[in-house]
């Protein structure tokens, strides 16, 4: 077995954005309204860690070790922090008030808010007494990780009367600079009683906590996490906006927050008495006054509004150029699960959105909405089900959008709602649309039918006869499958396929995603079609199609298929190797068993009755910093072509301390170098994409996860799937790989703990 250097603890910070435009003073902080206030103590040495304990701390302490922690938020708020500084809050502690540390980090060395110790996440409770429970203003390069935030105003006895200008986490500024580098990771934000302000509507519908006709700047900027900017003086705005660049919200839970879960917004000067700037609105696609935020990513979050009647958006991404919304679960929000508005080049992918309803005066109840003034929107690989409308195309004034390779099922009104203005265009292709609860498949009316919609290669299936398929002179249907009950085939479809598409299993009968599981994208696989389906090879080729289908299969295998799934190509050989461990005796796994190389230096490898005596697995346990603990298989000659490595993996206990890095697996070349590195570490699943270690998911102790790596030695790339969901696509190898010579489940150095592996299978496709 090759000797491999131990991996470092994974870095969480993404590659830095542009260099900061402004060096903030270490002694002052700029706040809203243009006031300058003292930031407290002078900046201290960089890369310093500070500990804060609400129960055992004292502000007179140094704060520099766990035995001498600070106590209060006031002490933190009065301190200016710098590059690499860490503010660690004691697990299990609760503070009431606002956390607003001053200062900024630098590119590659952010200032960090995090937790230490064991127990519940440290909690910041705004209690409705502060607008922002956690605040950053005119600051940059900050990471906020591992804390709990709430901001609930006490109820008054009148429903909605306690809603106010409240947020959980608020990142903002007004200094006319570009503020770079924000990471919000693994936080829990919940129960924020933010008011519901609507841009338009009728004031006759006002109610406690709900106000209509508030205009752009006053609307839709309360909730769990809000990223926006403003100006010091609305009556005399500066010539340049403040722009947020490179902000990531990931791996977090946002629950029961109003107006929204996550909001991104730019200032426009729309309110009475304000001088308009035009930064936050768009007159047309080339509007030079439009100055949006840039490079915003929202991924791997669980967002629910199930417990509040005032939660009116899951994700509201506005005023963004270059955005990604991916791998989120959006559960039972109001109005829109995911909405973009005045945005350019935003990709919405691999999300599950379900259960959206009308709330708090909102007129809509859709899963995903490309709304007013949105250009370059791509909606792909999403599972959208059980909402009012599935996908709403509401591009007022102008816009363009691509909707492709989505599974859209069981929405109670329209599966796709056409509601755009004349200047908008949409490409809707290769979606699988399953309708069993309404009379609407694809529906629009009135002036919205003057927009141009190209609808091709979709499976349009309905259990309800004559479900709506709206037509007009600017709506083109082409090469679609029309199945189920009798449907009226649009006359523009010159190549319709009227037939049963022959689903694998319909309707979908699978649980929805949760905070623990992430998006249940695998549920959509039930609407794949079987071999011999009339949807196979019956479509029309589409250029710029993204290169893959909902399941990750490459496009095309022969002629284009119809629907969200392309039948995979190639000829599969028998499984090269499979290890179930079920027939092995319980106890130590001997070296050479089933051709496996076993090393127990520093720990043990044992066959265990997990999950049962008839369904066994192997547990790798590491306890000592000596040698390596591993189970590996070597292939001679190395495997070439498309090589798929599948494993079921479980961590039995939560991360406590140490490096905790377990390969699940490493995949190596004949020279012993890792080409693919996948690992479980510190409650997350990570992998190398090229030379960069990225977080691709999280894991819960005691739960099995299906890990699948699909390697192409031809293209020198790999795809990584976690529980059937694609989490890395066409990623570069960590090191060159001409053939798979070894797979290794492995830990060394001080990576203590255990991992359980089962059902290891390696398959080669020519």
Automatic annotation (TrEMBL):
Coiled coil: none annotated. It comes from the Bacteria. Signal peptide: none annotated. PROSITE patterns: TAT. Pfam families: NosD. Residues 289-439 form the Periplasmic copper-binding protein NosD beta helix domain. Transmembrane segments: none annotated. SUPFAM superfamilies: Concanavalin A-like lectins/glucanases, Pectin lyase-like. This is Periplasmic copper-binding protein NosD beta helix domain-containing protein.
């Amino acid at each position: 077995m090759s000797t491999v250097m131990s991996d470092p603890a994974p870095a969480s910070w993404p590659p830095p954005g542009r260099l900061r435009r402004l060096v903030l003073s270490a002694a002052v902080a700029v706040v809203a309204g243009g006031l300058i206030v003292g930031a407290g103590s002078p900046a201290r040495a960089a890369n310093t860690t500070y500990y804060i304990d609400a129960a055992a701390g004292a502000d007179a302490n140094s704060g520099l070790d766990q035995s001498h922690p600070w106590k209060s938020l006031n002490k933190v708020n009065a301190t200016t922090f710098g590059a690499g500084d860490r503010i660690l809050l004691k697990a299990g502690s609760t503070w009431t008030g606002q956390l607003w540390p001053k200062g900024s980090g630098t590119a590659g060395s952010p200032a960090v808010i995090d937790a230490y110790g064991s127990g519940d996440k440290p909690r910041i409770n705004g209690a409705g007494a502060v607008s922002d429970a956690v605040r950053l203003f005119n600051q940059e390069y900050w990471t906020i990780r591992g804390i709990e935030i709430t901001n609930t105003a006490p109820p008054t006895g009148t429903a909605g009367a306690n809603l106010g200008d409240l947020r959980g986490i608020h990142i903002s500024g007004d200094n006319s600079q570009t503020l770079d580098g924000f990471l919000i990771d693994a936080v829990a934000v919940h129960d924020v009683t933010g008011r519901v302000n609507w841009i338009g509507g009728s004031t006759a519908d006002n109610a406690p906590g709900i106000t209509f006709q508030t205009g752009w700047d006053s609307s839709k900027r309360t909730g769990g996490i809000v990223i926006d900017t403003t100006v010091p003086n609305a009556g005399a705005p500066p010539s340049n906006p403040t722009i947020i660049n490179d902000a990531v919200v990931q791996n977090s839970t946002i629950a029961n927050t109003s107006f929204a879960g996550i909001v991104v917004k730019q200032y426009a000067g729309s309110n009475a008495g304000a001088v308009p700037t035009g930064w936050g609105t768009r007159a047309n696609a080339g509007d030079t006054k439009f100055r949006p935020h840039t490079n915003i990513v929202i991924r791997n979050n669980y967002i629910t509004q199930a417990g509040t009647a005032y939660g009116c958006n899951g994700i509201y991404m506005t005023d963004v150029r270059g955005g990604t919304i991916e791998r989120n679960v959006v559960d039972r929000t109001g109005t829109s699960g995911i909405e973009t508005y005045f945005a350019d080049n935003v990709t919405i992918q691999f999300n599950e959105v379900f259960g959206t309803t009308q709330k708090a005066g909102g007129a809509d109840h859709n899963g995903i909405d490309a709304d007013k003034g949105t250009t370059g929107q791509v909606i792909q690989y999403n599972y959208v089900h059980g909402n009012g409308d599935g996908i709403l195309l509401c591009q007022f004034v102008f816009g363009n959008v691509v909707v492709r390779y989505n599974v859209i099922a069981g929405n109670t009104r329209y599966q796709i709602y056409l509601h755009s203005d004349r200047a908008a265009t949409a490409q809707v292709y290769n979606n699988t649309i399953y309708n069993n609860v309404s009379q609407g498949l694809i529906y629009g009316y009135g002036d919205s039918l003057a927009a141009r919609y190209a609808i091709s290669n979709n499976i349009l299936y309905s259990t309800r006869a004559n479900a709506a398929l709206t037509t007009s002179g600017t709506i083109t249907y082409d090469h679609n499958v029309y199945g189920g009950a009798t449907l009226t085939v649009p006359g523009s479809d010159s190549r319709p396929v009227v037939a049963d598409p022959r689903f694998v299993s319909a309707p979908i009968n699978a649980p929805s995603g949760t905070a623990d599981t992430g998006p249940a994208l695998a549920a959509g696989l039930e609407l794949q079609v079987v071999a011999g389906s009339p949807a196979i090879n019956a479509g029309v080729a589409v250029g710029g199609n993204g290169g893959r289908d909902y399941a990750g299969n490459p496009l095309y295998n022969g002629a284009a298929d119809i629907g969200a799934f392309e039948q995979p190509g190639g000829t599969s050989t028998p499984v090269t190797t499979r290890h179930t461990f079920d027939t092995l005796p319980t106890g130590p796994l001997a070296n050479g068993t089933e051709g496996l190389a076993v090393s127990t230096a520093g720990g043990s490898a044992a066959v265990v009755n997990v999950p049962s005596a008839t369904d066994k697995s192997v547990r790798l346990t590491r306890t000592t910093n000596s040698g390596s603990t591993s189970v590996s298989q070597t292939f001679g000659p190395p495997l070439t072509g498309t090589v798929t490595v599948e494993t079921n993996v479980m961590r039995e206990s939560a991360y406590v301390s140490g490096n905790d890095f377990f390969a699940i697996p490493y995949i190596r070349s004949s020279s012993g170098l890792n080409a693919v590195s996948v690992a479980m570490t510190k409650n997350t699943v990570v992998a190398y994409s090229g030379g960069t270690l990225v977080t691709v998911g999280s894991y819960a102790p005691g739960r099995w996860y299906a890990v699948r790596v699909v390697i192409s030695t031809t293209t020198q790339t790999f795809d990584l799937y976690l529980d059937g969901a694609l989490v890395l696509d066409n990623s570069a190898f960590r090191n060159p790989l001409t053939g798979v010579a070894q797979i290794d489940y492995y830990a060394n150095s001080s990576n203590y703990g255990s991992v359980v592996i089962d059902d290891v299978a390696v398959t080669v496709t020519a």
